[in-house]
Specification:
heterodimer, A: 1203 residues, mainly beta, 22-stranded antiparallel beta barrel, 5-stranded mixed sheet, B: two-stranded antiparallel sheet, 9 strands
């Protein structure tokens, strides 16, 4: 290696580095400059350097001295090698003021040297090359490549058309290449249109425009903490851009991502990585984590999607592996979804407006269920087989057997069976109606088909209509950029009284106060007003059959009278004590007791960005979140719910009169939830490239976060909405009211008021670094400590950081890798640890205290046992990925393989009964679980001509979840069956469905399963060890296939989303469920709408070889047991393959011709028509029904205008 | 430039110092809606947690005695219930017992709470030493009562000759996670109960804060129950007398009948009236729930069982009424509310006193005590005082009344096991169902309940041996 000196600045650290460009080697030396000097040096724009003037002259000096002097005068660095210059002595030139370029021309006039400007340096190179160039008609071309905003693009492939000469732009977007005269230079870059430029000598600056076809490849990704170039990322990031979403309706965040990201399915990234902690990904909007936590009606904590104007989305980046997410520390292990909103580009004013109208036909799918005729046949079967009804019809056509009469009238009086069919049968067997009257009645009922459901569709449902409008205004002038968007949505749902209306206003402003200080302010405010129908005609408060209806032939609402469904004893009491009517008119109830909800939320942030130097930035940002949700529900005193409650609380006074302990009147229920939160972060960003090749980024920051949730509800009785008055009630008496006349109601302390509060606090310190050598070799790492009030006080758990390390190799940049058709080939690897939390776990023994209404005073209940070892969950992810792009980007994609190992997962462990915790499980950090998977993303331009383009994309994600350690075993079989996620089993997926192994029907048509010893039983094995795994509810294979055809201004696209290899428990069984009959203290089969296949049930011996549908049983058989339903419903034959492919979206859009649009002073106008969920292909019809595959599709009409 | 750096450095240092100095305070925020118990009142409040600590579920005992009507659903759904109800000695109740656990779990969860109080009350704040000692004493009595239920359910009845050899139930005296315990002998568990209650007595109040809190009367009544069960009639009698000094009131069921006559005698009305046997029942020494801690009706009883009540029993007539629905006939409950199935009442102490008197040769005094109870039960129109001079006959009268009076509590089961040891009092139960005669011998292994599978499978820091093979 030759020694090289650089003269310009005195402090130097000589080093030698080899740089290769084409075939020519230039040896340079670069001094690492002392930092202070660098940022104190005057900033000279590279382009102006050659023309800036200096005063320079010299007499009989060596060239070396001359160049050093030039460096000193020009304050530029001049780089040369000694062998180059030592042969030139006695150089003179008159002192004068010239441009630097002129000076250099003179200085090197008689040498075979020439010069090149590079950044703030002058490189002295040998002229031979230039000479050769001119000899061979070659040009030396150089310049920079930027995007439309003049942001330099690094990694752009610069290739001479028809030759294998290639160069790549550096981090500053600069390139240089030797080209033959008259040839064309191709500039290609993933995500941008390739440009061809005719070669010329010297500077060619190129601007690339983003391509519309290469949708998923973009140069820059935002992690929420920093922006990194895709090229330098080592983690698994997937970015979805706005234009990718453009033609679909932006209904909500989760559906937007449906089928767009390999490995994202059903709101989860890369499977389920937590058992009891949070399993949803963390959402980050414009750099801030946004959590939308609420209490649900049961007091459990739920995570909602964050609110934002979806049309503002510029891009969504999904962070999947540890290298990508571990900077999020204790919330990283479920993946992170980073949303970036649009920002108007420099010096532009943009106005756009969009409108969408969505509807779907009113429909209620019922065709796979029993119709009126089926039900009548089942009801007739009940009577035919009943041993208590075995008698003959007398000649009169009436039943006269007194035993049979007594039995039947007892059932009738006690209201054991209340359907019209059963009551007619009982009337007949009681001797009240004749055989012919019975037959007439039953025949008429049998002919009703699906009458009830038809009425339901007709009177209680409608075609849902969803409207959404959005107006976006952006204006940028000089150093200020402003964006505003307003969105309005109006939804009318299928339930006729359910609707909502919402507004969202998003304001953002970014100002460069000085050239080193930038202030970003933003505020998002949303308001939503919704009305929810609380009464459903499908569960009207009484049992109905499909032959019943909601409206009679003349259009009057049908009333279910108290007399038709209550026992004579209850009716007698209602009459005797003059209680309020217990009739129910379903169609009148629909519009009553509507729940009105107002949601207001605001999110405001300020970010201050201080540019200390080009390479060092200080950021501080603060966000405050505030949200209030209010629910008001006026329960109308005329509603059945109120009448039933008031009656149910009535007792008998000493004078034998009814006492309404609860005053009759409207009941006002109010609920308020207030959420507040703040996030304060500051960080230092270091970013510098040394010697063109060593690129360092380093970030150090701290963060404080608090979120607080306050919940309260209260109820007022006998409320007058006009006067706003109510009757104070005696809570203690009401809570202790029993011995009521008809029963059926009870009040607890929660019936009056409930208060809850949750506070989560975090303090975090984080750091992140990235190093890339020559853009070929990449190394990244991150480290983060979190402390929170959520987990144990033991410092050994508090001080464990989450961290990651990642490496990348841009193979296509290697000189040995010389494959012209490969534009990008990159290998990525990462390994790291991310955390996760459970929001409502605490390390201490806690007890909660409530008033005791029985004996007075306060009662204390132990809530959780002390768990000082509570810590965050730890998920270690290994990820190996390949990014590639070939054929000038016509085919590009990613491949990722990952292994996520969760340890310290909060999991249930059994309480010890003898320790007093027999029924309790409690959560400790001892679960382990792995998620292994593969993800493939492919995007291709299949065909492209001037007017026509055909694109296709294919996404595939494979995920296998396995629980590798838990220390829990369900104590009882039904807990394993009903709460599989509380009792995961080692070796199975966490989301396993459990069941009994089916053993076919018995010779008498009873369902049979295998017990733990492999014996066939027709009773419930009732043993945890007989319970087997039946498959996972999470698809092993998920993904999508999308294709679009562009012809001139028309785009037709469709998206298929597939989910394969998973199971669903079929709950739509061809078997009558059991119901507890309080009159008989027995379980009896509930004759109700079930799967139509019940008509193919076992009827006679031998049928067991033909069918798996058990014999219909009515409860009086000696072999009947309510367990039979459980055996059958839990059998693995009723866990069905749910694999399906859904035609999720078909869209046709038309862009008005520009010429036409311009006349109207518009920028663009687009119309689109979409069909959502057009069709579902499913392996199993029952599964298709369970998955809503028979629901009507949505039709969307949309318009998009920009000014 | 330098100023800028300096300013930023100051800001950073400032925030960093705030961050580290107040970090622990900031993160030390405690959850609301729940707290860490520290004051004595925080511990005392656990006594009022009826669901966790005041339930005595003896379902299988009731079923074995056929004191509770089972429907065909119950029999087909619960093989264990069926085995006990139909006296099926071939049934392997150990493996059938997969879901019937509350008897065990509820008693041990109460014991855990009492252990927690006994461990923590000495260091609890905001109280006097007297208050502290009272709470500890009450916890000890309640703990002993739980052990009595367990020992008389899952292990053999007390027999002086074998009590030191046969195992009883796990004795656990700490609430700490993974606390060690030992399955002690019958003698040890009785010794532990007696010692705890004797220790507690001086610190117990005459009248306690609520009926859930034991008082002196509770302790005497419990000692009477315990000594009787051990066959120590003199000790039992002495404590029964002490208990009756605290409370000797008997509820007048004949008066109750008279005031609810219309409702009780109307065969078609099943309106439920409020139970007088709840928290304010005049007979209470203390109150504990049965299987359910919420207001509810009583279990229905079989028609055959109803025949063992004396004619004119107002207490029975006020509680159950014949009902037929479809093909099923049974006596259905007509009271609703709360029932003191788990605590101690004066009726029991009267009958303990009567038995002790009969056992110690004071037959006439025994009959007087028995009749004192009966006169409040049997309607005046049919009431006749019972009289005998024969001790065994007297005992049989007492047995019959006690089994009826204390139905649904653990005592009929515990008493029957005890009486079954004596040839003159042993009873063979028989019934005919569908033409088949079923019987339950006094020596049947069914008289001891197997530990639930959940407890033996997940036994914690100790081992559990079944006291019955199947």
């Amino acid at each position: 290696m030759k020694k090289i000196y650089s003269n310009a600045l005195p402090h130097q650290l000589p080093t030698s580095i080899v740089r290769t460009t084409g075939n020519i080697r230039i040896f340079l030396i670069v001094g690492f400059l002392l930092i202070s000097q660098l940022f104190f040096s005057p900033s000279i724009q590279a382009q102006t350097i050659p023309n800036s003037k200096i005063t320079f002259g010299l007499k009989n000096k060596t060239l070396e001295a001359g160049l050093n002097e030039l460096g000193r005068v020009s304050k530029l660095r001049v780089a040369f090698t000694l062998p180059q210059v030592e042969k030139y002595n006695n150089i003179s030139m008159p002192k004068d003021t010239r441009t630097i370029k002129e000076t250099l021309d003179l200085l090197l006039a008689n040498t075979n040297l020439t010069f090149v400007f590079k950044d703030k340096s002058i490189l002295i190179i040998e002229k031979t090359r230039t000479k050769q160039e001119s000899n061979n008609d070659k040009y030396y071309t150089f310049g920079s490549v930027t995007d439309l905003d003049l942001v330099p693009l690094s990694g752009v492939t610069v290739r001479v058309k028809g030759s294998d000469q290639t160069a790549v732009t550096n981090a500053d977007g600069r390139y240089s290449i030797d080209v033959e005269k008259g040839s064309l230079i191709l500039f290609s870059y993933i995500g941008f249109e390739t440009r061809e430029i005719e070669a010329k000598k010297g500077l060619i600056n190129v601007t690339l425009t983003p391509s519309i076809i290469n949708l998923s490849e973009v140069s820059v990704i935002s992690t929420g903490y920093q922006v990194v170039t895709k090229e330098r990322a080592t983690g698994a990031y997937v970015k979805v851009n706005k234009d990718q979403l453009g033609q679909r309706r932006l209904s909500d965040l989760s559906t937007i991502l449906d089928g767009q990201i390999a490995g994202y399915s059903d709101g989860r990234i890369r499977g389920t990585s937590s058992m009891l902690g949070m399993a949803n990904p963390l959402f980050v909007i414009d750099g801030f984590p946004v959590e939308n936590t609420r209490y649900d009606a049961n007091g459990s904590i739920i995570e909602n999607l964050p609110g934002l104007n979806l049309e503002d989305i510029e891009s969504i980046t999904v962070l999947k592996d540890a290298a990508a997410t571990s900077i999020y520390g204790a919330r990283a292990s479920n993946g992170v979804i980073v949303v970036t909103t649009t920002k108007t580009k420099k010096d532009k004013t943009e106005v756009s407006f969009s409108a969408d109208l969505t509807t779907s036909p009113n429909s209620y799918y019922i065709n796979n269920m029993t119709d009126a005729n089926d039900i009548i046949n089942i009801e007739k079967g009940w009577a035919a087989g009943n041993p208590n009804l075995q008698t003959n019809v007398g000649s009169s056509g009436f039943i006269t057997d007194p035993t049979v009469n007594a039995y039947s009238s007892s059932l009738r009086k006690n209201a054991v069976y209340t359907s019209q069919g059963m009551q007619s049968l009982l009337d007949f067997y009681s001797g009240k109606i004749s055989q012919s009257a019975l037959n007439t009645k039953l025949n008429s009922l049998a002919g009703q088909g699906y009458n009830y459901y038809k009425d339901y569709e007709k009177y209680a449902r409608r075609s849902p209509v969803y409207q959404q409008y959005n107006l976006n205004i952006g204006k940028a002038t000089g150093k200020n950029s402003f964006n505003a968007s307003v969105s309005y949505r109006n939804n009318k749902f299928a339930d006729i009284y359910s609707k909502d209306e919402s507004y969202g206003v998003n304001l953002r402003n970014s100002t460069e106060i000085t050239n080193w200080l930038k202030l970003d302010l933003g505020s998002y405010t949303s308001y939503k007003n919704s009305t929810t129908q609380t009464y459903s005609a499908l569960s009207p408060g009484y049992s109905y059959q499909t032959y019943d209806g909601l409206s009679d032939v003349s259009g009057n609402a049908i009333t279910s009278t108290a007399a038709s469904r209550l026992s004579t004893y209850t009716l007698d009491n209602i009459n005797k004590y003059g209680l309020y009517s217990m009739d129910i008119t379903a169609l009148n109830e629909l519009g009553m007791n509507l729940k009105n909800k107002n949601e207001f939320s605001n999110r405001t942030y300020a970010k201050l960005n201080v540019k200390i130097a080009d390479w060092l930035k200080y950021n501080t940002m603060f966000q405050y979140e505030y949200g209030v949700d209010r629910i008001n529900q006026l329960k109308d005193k005329n509603s059945y719910a109120v009448r039933n409650m008031v009656n149910g609380m009535a007792t008998v006074s000493s004078t034998n009169k009814a006492v309404y302990n609860l005053p009759y009147g409207n009941i006002q229920y109010g609920e308020t939830q207030k959420s507040t939160g703040y996030n304060f972060r500051q960080q230092l960003d270091f970013n510098k490239t040394f010697a063109y090749k060593h690129d360092f980024t380093f970030l150090l920051g701290s963060e404080i976060r608090e979120s607080k949730l306050e919940y309260g509800n209260n109820s007022y009785y006998n409320y007058d909405p006009e006067m706003l008055s109510y009757t104070p009630v005696d809570q203690k008496t009401l809570i202790n009211t029993y011995g009521t006349i008809i029963g059926g109601a009870s009040l607890s302390a929660a019936s009056f008021a409930v208060q809850k509060e949750l506070v989560n606090r975090f303090v975090s310190v984080f750091s992140n670094f990235g190093y890339s050598y020559d853009n070929k070799y990449l190394l990244t790492g991150s480290l983060r400590w979190d402390r929170s009030n959520l987990w144990g006080t033991d410092t050994k758990y508090q001080n464990k950081p989450s961290w990651s390390i990642g490496g990348g190799w841009n193979i296509c940049k290697e000189s040995f890798f010389d494959v012209a058709w490969v534009n990008l080939l990159k290998l990525r690897m990462s390994y790291g640890v991310g955390g996760n939390i459970a929001k409502n776990s605490a390390p201490y023994m806690t007890a909660y205290y409530t008033p005791n209404s029985n004996v007075g005073g306060v009662q204390g209940t132990i809530n959780s046992r002390p768990n000082p070892a509570l810590s965050w969950e730890k998920t270690t992810t290994t990820n190996i990925g390949i990014d590639f792009s070939v054929l000038s980007g016509k085919l590009n994609g990613y491949l990722d393989v990952y292994n996520k190992k969760g340890a310290n997962l909060l999991s249930n462990t059994m309480g010890v009964p003898t320790e007093g915790w027999g029924y309790s499980t409690y959560a400790i950090n001892n679960g382990e679980m792995t998620n292994k998977g593969v993800e493939i993303t492919l995007n291709a331009v299949v065909l492209k001509t001037k007017n026509f383009e055909w694109n296709a994309s294919f996404l595939y994600g494979y995920n296998k979840n396995e629980v590798t350690y838990v220390n829990v075993k369900a104590p009882v079989y039904f807990l394993q069956l009903d709460y599989p996620s509380s009792y995961p089993r080692i070796g199975n997926s966490y989301n396993t469905i459990y069941g009994y192994k089916w053993a076919g029907l018995s010779s008498t048509g009873l369902p049979q399963v295998y017990d733990k010893d492999g014996e066939v039983v027709s009773s419930n094995p009732a043993d945890v060890d007989a319970v087997v795994s039946c498959g996972s509810t999470v698809p092993a294979h998920t993904g999508s296939f999308g294709t679009s055809f562009n012809y001139k201004n028309v785009v037709l696209s469709c998206l298929f989303v597939y989910r394969l290899g998973y199971k669903v428990r079929n709950t739509n069984l061809a078997y009558l469920p059991s119901v507890y009959s309080s009159a008989t203290y027995n379980y009896v089969p509930n004759i109700t709408t079930v799967n139509k296949q019940i008509s193919n049930s076992w009827k006679q011996q031998g049928d067991e070889t033909k069918t798996n549908i058990p014999r219909i049983m009515y409860g009086y058989e000696s072999d009947y047991s309510s367990d039979l339903y459980d055996i059958y419903s839990y059998a693995d034959i009723n866990v069905v393959d749910a694999s399906n492919i859904r035609l999720s979206n078909v869209s046709l859009s038309y862009q008005l011709p520009t010429s036409l649009v311009k006349k109207a002073s518009l920028n663009s106008v687009r119309f689109n028509f979409n069909v959502e969920n057009l069709y579902t292909f499913a392996v199993n019809n029952d599964a298709k029904y369970m998955l809503g595959g028979y629901n009507a599709p949505n039709f969307v009409l949309g318009m998009n205008i920009s000014f | 430039m330098k100023n800028k750096i300096l300013t930023i450095s100051y800001v950073l240092v400032f925030f960093a110092s705030i961050l580290f100095s107040s970090c622990n305070d900031y993160l030390g925020v405690m959850p609301k809606g729940a707290k860490i118990p520290t004051k004595l009142a925080d511990y005392e409040a656990f006594i009022r947690d009826e669901y966790t600590n005041q339930r005595v579920d003896v379902t299988q005992a009731n079923i074995l005695l056929n004191d509770r009507n089972l429907t065909s659903s119950d029999l087909s759904y619960y093989p264990l219930w069926k085995a006990n109800y139909m006296w099926d000695e071939s049934a392997d109740r150990v493996t059938l017992n997969k879901s019937d656990e509350t008897s065990y779990y509820a008693n041990y969860s109460a014991i855990s709470t009492w252990n927690l109080i006994i461990e923590n009350a000495p260091s609890a704040t905001e109280c006097t030493d007297a208050e502290r000692n009272t709470l500890i004493a009450q916890a000890k009595v309640l703990r002993a009562m739980s052990y009595f239920n367990l020992a008389n359910y899952y292990a053999d009845t007390y027999d002086e000759s074998t009590a030191s050899k046969k195992l009883s139930v796990p004795l656990i005296s700490s609430a700490v996670i993974n606390a060690p315990y030992e399955q002690v002998t019958i003698q040890e568990i009785y010794d532990d109960m007696l010692k705890n209650v004797e220790d507690a007595l001086p610190n117990l109040p005459e009248t306690s804060a609520t009926v859930l809190h034991p008082n002196k009367g509770t302790a005497y009544a419990f000692l009477a129950r315990c000594y009787l069960q051990m066959g120590k009639y003199t000790d039992a009698l002495a404590n029964a007398k002490l208990a009756l000094q605290v409370n000797s009131t008997l509820f007048d069921w004949t008066a109750y009948y008279a005031s609810n006559k219309a409702q009780i005698e109307n065969p078609n009305s099943y309106v439920k009236t409020v139970s007088p046997m709840g928290f304010n029942y005049v007979e209470n020494y203390n109150y504990q729930h049965g299987e359910r801690s919420y207001a509810s009706s009583e279990r229905n009883i079989p028609v055959l069982r109803a025949t063992s009540f004396e004619p004119g029993d107002a207490r029975f007539a006020s509680r159950w009424k014949l009902r037929t629905v479809g093909a099923d006939t049974y006596y259905t409950s007509t009271l609703t509310g709360f029932f003191n199935y788990g605590g101690l009442t004066t009726t029991e102490v009267y009958l303990i006193k009567a038995e002790c008197l009969a056992r110690t040769g004071k037959v006439q005094e025994a009959m007087d005590v028995l009749n004192a109870v009966r006169v409040k039960r049997i309607l005046p129109a049919v009431y006749q005082p019972l009289a005998t001079t024969d001790a065994v006959t007297a005992l049989k009268y007492i047995i019959k009344t006690k089994a009826n009076e204390l139905i649904m509590t653990i005592m009929p089961f515990a008493d029957t096991r005890r009486w079954n040891k004596e040839a003159s009092l042993a009873r063979t139960f028989t019934k005919v169902v569908g033409g088949t005669t079923y019987s339950l011998s006094p020596t049947s292994h069914l008289w001891t309940m197997p530990f639930p599978k959940g407890a033996t499978d997940n036994h914690g820091n100790g081992s559990i041996t079944q006291n019955v093979d199947k």
